[in-house]
Amino acid sequence: SQTIHQWPATLVQPVGSPLSLECTVEGTSNPNLYWYRQAAGRGLQLLFYSVGIGQISSEVPQNLSASRPQDRQFILSSKKLLLSDSGFYLCAWSKGLTTGELFFGEGSRLTVL
Amino acid sequence: AQSVTQLGSHVSVSEGALVLLRCNYSSSVPPYLFWYVQYPNQGLQLLLKYTSAATLVKGINGFEAEFKKSETSFHLTKPSAHMSDAAEYFCAVSVYGGATNKLIFGTGTLLAVQP
Questions:
Q1: A8 preceded by cis ω (within 30°)?
Q2: What is the C-alpha separation between B77 and B70, in angstroms, rounded?
């Protein structure tokens, strides 16, 4: 069966520091991968998605970037965090051009102070 | 553009009462629609999905939803609420853009269940 892992689960970082959140999928190949951000009272916002190694699509301009160095690895990064980057970050995967159903990881809570 | 709107950011019901969470969609093509549940500090779990087959969709934990094209609605219901149903619920629509499908989520409805 397929599983998805995110780490770290919780992170507290000062403003201006770098960020790296990692997501790994097991049990499938060539998944589509997604990063969402959930801010308090604002639902889920799609940040990035990827359909293959090195292929990244950005949904909104922001202080974050994403990379996919391996087929089942998706990384969310920032060079300098802002207060507004605080939130709950969710990684998800789907299998090709299907109905769009996503399978989510457990999330990473980022607090920027 | 395709989107979903969830009416009511907070809903409170008594244990054993009917649960009704509202979702309306906007789509120019037949949509794929989803309901997800999120427990505190966890990821999202799929409750059910509509993919243009039966209009009444049954999901996990006793939930179901009915696709009504005439009302552009996909409301989530459960006949009898349980304390364990307290969570946040998200409606979503699948959008094809660029290279793949993406899910666009509503702003969520937080369900409280009172004893």
A1: yes
A2: 18
Counting residues of chain B whose pLDDT is more than 90, the rounded percentage is: 76
> Quick check: A93 and A33 in contact, CB under 8 A?
yes
Helix (H, G, I), strand (E, B) or coil at A8: coil
Phi first, then psi: what are they for B81, rounded to 5°? -75, 145
pLDDT tens across A56-105, in order? 998 887 889 999 999 999 999 999 999 999 999 999 999 876 677 899 99
pLDDT in tens, B60-101: 999 999 999 999 999 999 999 999 999 999 999 988 766 678
Who contacts B54 (Cβ-Cβ below 8 Å, separation ≥6)? none
Q: Which residue has the tokens 């990684």?
A: A91
Tokens found for residue B29: 């093509």
Q: Find the helix or strand (DSSP H, E) in which B47 lies.
A: strand B44-50
Please check whether residue B6 is in contact with residue B106, taking contact to mean a CB–CB distance below 8 angstroms.
Answer: yes
Contact residues, chain B, for A59 at CB < 8 Å = 102
**3-state secondary structure (DSSP) of residue A63:** coil
**Calpha distance A51→A93 (Å, rounded):** 10
Question: Using CA atoms, how far apart are residues B85 and B91, in angstroms rounded to an integer?
Answer: 16
Radius of gyration of chain A (CA): 13
Minimal Cβ distance to A49: which of B43, B90, B102: B102
CA A94 to each of CA A70, B13, B102: distance values in angstroms, whole numbers, following the listed order: 16, 34, 9
Shortest CA gap A78–chain B (Å): 22
